[in-house]
Amino acid sequence: MSVQPSRIRLSLRGICVRRGGREVLRGLDLDVGEAEIVGLLGANGAGKTTAFHVLTGLLPADAGEVVLDGEAMPPGDRRVRAAMGVVFQDPALDPRLSARRNLELSADLFGVPAAQARARIDGLLLEAGLADRAGEAVKTFSGGMRRRVEIARALVHEPAILVLDEPSTGLDEAAFRRTWETFERLRRERGMTLLLTTHRADEAERCDRIAILDGGRRVAFDTPDELRRRVRGDLVVLDCAQPAEVAEILQRDLLLSARVLDGRVVLEHDRAHTWIPRIVEALPDGTLSAVQLRRTGMGEVYLELTGHELDRDSAERL
Questions:
Q1: Ranges under pLDDT 50 in the chain
Q2: 283 contacts: CB under 8 Å, gap ≥ 6
Q3: What are phi and psi for residue 181, nearest 5 degrees?
Q4: CATH 3.40.50.300 in the chain, residues?
Q5: Per residue in 201-238, pLDDT tens?
Q6: CATH top-level class of 234-295
Q7: Where in the chain is the domain with CATH 3.30.70?
Q8: How many CB atoms lie under 10 A from the CB of residue 23?
Q9: pTM over 0.85
């Protein structure tokens, strides 16, 4: 059974965005609990970045409201922005300035008194492992180090909620792990609520709950374990020139429930690996260009629930 948070810190209610006659977000509802990490998972064009822009006040909504600690207010309201620390997908640091100076500018922007700002910045740089390089220009830092500065900058005013757009973009595996260690520490030590967008299945797996978005709609919202239970077994994915014909052969000759998704034949089975030799034998030589066995993870859940691969590219440019 799905576990619900004990206290809701942030809610989105019926958020709609229309652009050029197209609905980019279609009545998005979302609850984010105190000290919870929630991910918005979707391919490019699913609507997750638009939701991020609405929540952070960068884009107006055509309908809907935000509820912060039980109080309803318009999206982008100053009270919402003040409660949040924001980490953008694209760098928001001045690369010519030092790490310390970037944090000082953020503290000035949020009106943090100078004495408090100095103490907070010292602590944040220490936590980020950058105290010994605080005076160096950010342009000399690696991608992972810059991400640590970005997160520290977002925490200078001590927000209750950290909102991040594709936080792992451009990070190598070591930097990815260290970034997530930071998120877990913020939740554990500060009771911080985190809401992030991602197109990475492995990143979504680390969240407490995941909202799966497709075509501007929320198609599922639950824990990773509960979402995985919606896929009955592992998936076999077949690349071929005539997917509809191949699916028909498998249904007729092997009695398999094969479907065509994103131009590939996909079938689901508890013991999917045992069917691969029989599938290959049932088809004429040269029919298949590739065969994949995919163990059930968030990528497979996304494919099952939306009919699309997570790396599918479409037009979300808001």
A1: 1, 313-318
A2: 246, 249
A3: -60, -40
A4: 8-228
A5: 999 999 999 999 999 999 999 999 899 888 767 889 99
A6: alpha beta
A7: 234-295
A8: 15
A9: no
